[in-house]
């Protein structure tokens, strides 16, 4: 059985490294926050959904865990 997790905080990264999950889907929190500002306004004037409204994500696996894209997608616990 393959298990895919959602989010990429330190606990999920540990589970990936230990083989408990085989992949993680990490959403872009900044993009998600910014995208929420647009759709409501467009929806209010009947413009509907736009591709840029969709949340960006990165699929992280043990094979690409150390890549720049995966490292950028891992959730930070502090600033």
Shape: globular
Number of helices: 3
Main beta-sheet strand count, sense and barrel state: 3 strands, mixed
Please give the share of residues in helix: 25-40%
Q: Biggest sheet: strands side by side, in what order?
A: 1-2-3
- Give, in order, the helices and strands: EHEHEH
Mean pLDDT: 80
Number of domains: 1
Coarse structural class:
alpha+beta
β-strand percent reads 15-25%
Total number of strands: 3
Give the uncertain stretches in residue-range form: 31-35
Write down the Rg.
Answer: 15 Å
| Straight-line distance between termini | 36 Å
Describe it for me?
This protein is of the alpha+beta class and 79 residues long. It has one domain. It is built from three helices and three strands; from the N terminus they run βαβαβα. It has a three-stranded mixed β-sheet. Helix 1 (10-18) links the parallel strand 1 (4-6) and strand 2 (23-27).
Helices and strands in order, then pairings?
Elements: E1 4-6, H1 10-18, E2 23-27, H2 29-44, E3 57-61, H3 68-73
Parallel strand pairs: 1-2
Antiparallel strand pairs: 2-3
